[in-house]
Amino acid sequence: MSDIRLICLDMDGTLLDDDHATVPQRNVAALRAADQRGAATVISSGRAWDLLREVDAQLGITKYAVLSNGAAVLDVASGEWIYRNCLSDQVRVPLIELLLDWGVPFEIYCQGKNYIQADRKEQVLSCAFTPQFRRILAEYSQFPQHMNEALPAGAVEKIHVFYVPPERRQELVERALEWGPLSVTTSFQNNMEFTAPGANKGTAVQALCARLGLGPEQVMAFGDAGNDLELLRWAGWSFAMANATEEAKAAARYVTGTNHEAGVGMAVEQYLLNG
Q1: In 3D, which of 195, 182, 203 has the Cα closest to residue 82?
Q2: What is the DSSP string of 148-167?
Q3: How much is the pTM?
Q4: C or N terminus of the chain, fewer CB within 10 Å?
Q5: How far is 222 from 199, CA to CA, in rounded Å?
Q6: Cα distance between residue 29 and residue 169, in whole Å
Q7: How confident is the model over 242-270, as a mean pLDDT?
Q8: Is the confidence at residue 187, as pLDDT, over 80?
Q9: Could you tell me the pLDDT band of residue 103, with boundaries at 50, 70 and 90?
Q10: Tens digits of per-residue pLDDT, 133-146?
Q11: Are 15 and 259 within 8 A, CB to CB?
Q12: Which residue segments constitute the domains of the chain, with CATH numbers given?
């Protein structure tokens, strides 16, 4: 059995149950057992850290967090930012103004915090996947009066638009790229996520592994969607969920059960604990 030292976990549609808030107990038990064997748990999410605090509490063993689709890596114990790849203000400022003008629901991830402009609060909360996730958004987000004024310079990790009308998606991408280079991805139907060029979970995990002296054969990774592809292709032990997109399944080496079936726990048991 390979010497697996990191287990990198996407959240929504992967580690979490269908409520987007609860970690199935089979996943918790398997990850804690793996931690005892020296395999560290790495949250690998599109979310900001503040929206993951309750997940971290359920696991109780998180060592590192890859955040905002790989725009930042946090050492959970020390609070050190191991890696940052933030949007330029040259792109961020006009893009936020455009999104406000268009009236689409969006949030900003910055230095681990989640920002929603106060006058858009109810619009954004109404986009929450479930009542449980709506509560997390309402409880852990910041609600400034003026978004661009509230954000520190050079520190925005990601702009997440919950819904872009399909007929306007191409227009939005073209407008955004007028201000400078961007990475654009999606993690569920009709959403859009903007990060700095080269920001993805694969690059971020590679930066973490460089710090720790680990190679891809020592990394187990799980995902289900477009923002997981680079990580699934790179990790030596990569698993797409049974509920994953076809693209994610093609990028991964293995397929495990669904998120609702605790597919993460199934694979950790089979390939690490019992392998």
Answers
A1: 203
A2: HHHSPTT-EEEEEES---GG
A3: 0.93
A4: N
A5: 18
A6: 41
A7: 98
A8: no
A9: very high
A10: 999 999 999 999 99
A11: yes
A12: 6-84+200-273 (3.40.50.1000), 89-195 (3.30.1240.10)
